[in-house]
Design goal:
The chain folds into 2 domains: 59 residues, no CATH class; 77 residues. 46% of the residues lie in helices and 13% in strands. The protein has 6 helices and 4 strands, in the order αβαβββαααα. The protein has a 4-stranded mixed sheet, with helices on one face. The longest helix has 20 residues. The chain starts with 9 loop residues before the first helix and ends with a helix.
Length: 159
């Protein structure tokens, strides 16, 4: 059986359609860190399995294949390319976490970002971002991230 032929404009329409929907007229300050890729990594699914991500006033609703959950904005780690981290962001994170430490997922996320960096400059950008939130990451997890960063940097510089 032959696959359906590609139609002009089809791919670009697919790429342009975001699954993120802002349901509230008031945008949550941490909404800038919500991405389809982060949701996929958070739930260990493919981006294609996400039906929609609704950014509500205080929570994010994720509807995906076999998943229907509310997630806190504080569960989404800061990303490169979003507006810079503000002091108020730490207050919002600490309030949700009920401690001063980021969820384990943040370590998984930044490890993933270090490993998928395509250049030393890109790796550096992610490293500088992690440096800005290092006070919210436990010492052991921060060391894990430093080890991954160093290994990835070494690989990029040697090959």
């Amino acid at each position: 059986m032959n696959p359906r032929p590609f139609r002009a404009g089809e791919l670009s329409r697919t790429i342009a359609e975001s699954k993120i929907i802002h349901k509230s007229p008031i945008l949550h300050p941490l909404a800038r860190f919500v991405t389809e890729e982060t949701v996929a990594l958070l739930f260990n699914i493919e981006v294609e399995d996400i039906y929609r991500i609704e950014c509500c006033r205080h929570m994010v609703y994720v509807h995906a294949k076999h998943i229907s959950r509310f997630v806190s904005y504080a569960d989404f780690p800061p990303i490169v390319g979003a507006n810079p981290i503000a002091l108020q962001d730490f207050g919002r994170w600490y309030k949700r976490w009920k401690s001063k430490l980021a969820p384990l997922f943040w370590t998984k996320f930044y490890t993933h970002k270090f490993k998928e960096a395509i250049s030393v400059d890109s790796l550096l950008e992610w490293g500088l971002l992690v440096a800005k939130v290092k006070s919210a990451i436990s010492g052991a997890r921060l060391q894990q991230l430093r080890d991954v960063y160093a290994a990835e940097k070494h690989l990029m510089e040697k090959f």
